[in-house]
Amino acid sequence: MARRSAPEVNAGSMADIAFLLLIFFLVTTTIETDSGLNRKLPPMEDIIDPPIIKERNIFTVVVNKNNDLLVEEKPMQIDELREAAVTFLDNGGGKGEDACSFCQGERDPNSSDNPEKAVISLKNDRETDYKVYIAVQNELVAAYNILRNREFARLNPNLGMSFVEADRKYSDPRTSLSQKESLKPKLSEVKALFPQKLSEAEPSKSN
Amino acid sequence: MSKFKKKKSGDLPAISTASLPDIVFMLLFFFMVATVMRDSTLMVKNTLPAADQVQKLDKKDRVMYIYAGKPSQRYQEKFGTQPKIQLNDKFATVQDVGAFVLAERAAKRQELQNVLTTSLKVDGDTKMGLISDIKQELRKVNALKINYTTRTGDYTQNLD
Lengths: 207, 160
Fold this sequence. Notes:
B: elongated
């Protein structure tokens, strides 16, 4: 019997095969995560005794079926909304126990007492476009973020981080547990100063 | 003279490519591990609106997705052009949302069942009526944490 040595397998094409697989996985990979506006819906149970809120503490935003904006009964362009909401929330017109010590607003007695009591009421039509609704939501969240950033910088001047950055860091799973523990009270302190009170009414039906 | 001949041999030695497969395989394994396959094919048009005050939606295991929008071109003949809801791989009506959420919740691990977020991936041109209906259904089954999933961008892109 002739002892033939096994012929060597040509491995030259291995790289090609690997490249093919590599490119396939490269294309199908989605590393980036989704992001968006977080919201919490109110529970279903009926509130038997709704709390009475003074008219001046409510900031009404209405979006109609033509995507026009009505803020506090006046028409408004969407790029003015952020500033209007900031002015309303930061007004601090309350007296006595409702007084707001950190507000920098005009203290107009016809606007909100303090951020704790201020409620933004958003009402939209069934025919409103979703993208406009998102733009309005975005601007209202931005107003809260502006004020929260300001207070966060005032309370933690040495941190070198804004509220939004700190919040992002807090929810990042890579942040260490000890860092999260130190951030948590700071974040909730600012959140308590400017609680996000965004109420959404049932959409109206247009005829 | 023959002493110097060896040194002068002009052409460069070929670069060994023997380690190329190893490198490529290393990359291949990285991407294989990092890949998350898209779990449902989109049957609706899904241009998300833009927003810049966004929060990340980490931890994919505690998110369920609801898509809505106009049916894409090839489904328009069958399903029309009115915006529809897509759950998993099929079109659904508003009444199916509750059952879908309960089924998704039951499929998750016990400790995650109370911290689930519903991600609403809705096309920008959809009317709010449909979204309000979805939100009502979500309230009925007590799925209160929602996320309006958006692109990252300036809000003015939404207003054309």
